[in-house]
């Protein structure tokens, strides 16, 4: 998967790269209007390609020259370590436990092979990811990285599958909803959008994923 994603990033002539550049530019405009510093990428249900969108979008921002951080928010189904060929035991899981308060943001972040793109993967498996996401250490981590990076994207869980999406949305200030072209019904997507509108974070946009 790493090579497949990398090729999509570096090929300036591919349709996929052009589409993500357009998406990046549109989101940049919206995030500027809403003063968004942390953007949650979610979907109505699992399997709609939100991680694919989040990873490619993060790479597109980095290629543009923006210092970009992609944070793993889907701790039930972590994928970023595999996508970017990172050590699976290093990551956000360090924010749980007696030493969580002393953990620095830089300890959880790994640079990728894509210049200006860093990732904060899940790390070790957690029995209850909500404990991490609801904790003060995770909030402090996001506060730190907002000052270090131009763009912070969170690859979050689906809204219908995990209460954790709501916890992350409380800390992010912008949300993008991804919907697969042949995925959930329009009603499911509409319900998800309505759910997001009840959250403090601004709904920045929706993305139709045809991949």
From TrEMBL:
Keyword terms of this UniProt record: ATP-binding, Capsule biogenesis/degradation, Exopolysaccharide synthesis, Kinase, Nucleotide-binding, Transferase, Tyrosine-protein kinase
EC number per UniProt: 2.7.10.2
Pathway linked to the protein: Capsule biogenesis; capsule polysaccharide biosynthesis
A single BP term in Gene Ontology: capsule polysaccharide biosynthetic process
SUPFAM superfamilies assigned: P-loop containing nucleoside triphosphate hydrolases
Enzyme class: transferase
Limits of the AAA domain: 41-198
Functional summary from the UniProt entry: Involved in the regulation of capsular polysaccharide biosynthesis. Autophosphorylation of CpsD attenuates its activity and reduces the level of encapsulation. May be part of a complex that directs the coordinated polymerization and export to the cell surface of the capsular polysaccharide.
Record-linked PANTHER family: FERRIC ENTEROBACTIN TRANSPORT PROTEIN FEPE, TYROSINE-PROTEIN KINASE
UniProt name for this protein: Tyrosine-protein kinase CpsD
The species this protein was found in: Lacticaseibacillus zeae DSM 20178 = KCTC 3804
Phylogenetic lineage: Bacteria, Bacillati, Bacillota, Bacilli, Lactobacillales
